[in-house]
């Protein structure tokens, strides 16, 4: 085991990445670092070594860890993920925490562009009284999300549609982690394994956010909130778009690194 870890680290993997892949390759719990210590001098058999080396090479080619292991932890849930959806990022938990903070009891909530279902399922997991709907334009993504909902026995309703264009009714809370990367962003070459349509949004990365902000008002109850995740340098632009659309109390929240990552606004009461 130790030799395999050393070889992986020599190729550029950090210690935790190498340990996670090795535990996966030998079919052990991915968090059981103690098992690796106890079996430090064990040798991998040929099948295990081949599997481990393949995983290492795929990670070095920028394939996300979640695709390699088949899961990603998010807000207390272990979610199945694969190449049909983005791997949920820890920063997106900022959006979930904000929604849980401001959402009323028995809230009606819609998650737009649900992907793996991470946001919708985390909200329902934390607030059993909420009625949560999750929308995605990709039938493949909805299949992944529905599988995760079934696994956790969470009663989330799934709809196929492009943002709010096929959605009826009004909500207490609309949340979304939409595509927000610009077409020429320098980070895109490192994200080649993930679905491009879930990442890229026009020349400035704000095309989908503009659509959501435009579509949202008729679907918001007076006093309801729209919360959006966005890029590290887009908070000011998203705030401006919300104010232009008539939203009040426009504000942003920082992610784990202290970067403004989510911006939202309240749809005002009719006077």
Succession of helices and strands? HHHHHEEHEHEHEEHEHEE
Count the DSSP helices.
Answer: 10
Structural class by sheet pairing and helices: alpha/beta
Helical residue percent band = 25-40%
Largest sheet: 7 strands, mixed
Corresponding CATH superfamily of the largest domain: Vaccinia Virus protein VP39
Task: Quickly list its features.
seven-stranded mixed sheet, Rossmann fold, alpha/beta, 271 residues
Characterise the protein shown here.
- With 271 residues, the protein is of the alpha/beta class.
- The protein folds into two domains: 2-61, no CATH class; 72-266, Rossmann fold.
- 36% of the residues lie in helices and 20% in strands.
- The chain contains ten helices and nine strands.
- It has helices spanning 2-10, 15-25, 33-38, 46-60, 65-69, 93-102, 118-126, 139-152, 207-215, 235-244, and strands at residues 71-74, 77-80, 108-112, 131-136, 157-160, 171-176, 220-229, 248-254, 260-266.
- It has a seven-stranded mixed β-sheet with strand order 5-4-3-6-7-9-8. Strands 1-2 form a two-stranded antiparallel sheet.
- Helix 1 (2-10) packs across helix 2 (15-25).
Concise description?
The protein is of the alpha/beta class and 271 residues long. It has 2 domains: 2-61, no CATH class; 72-266, Vaccinia Virus protein VP39 (Rossmann fold, 3-Layer(aba) Sandwich). The chain contains 10 helices and 9 strands.
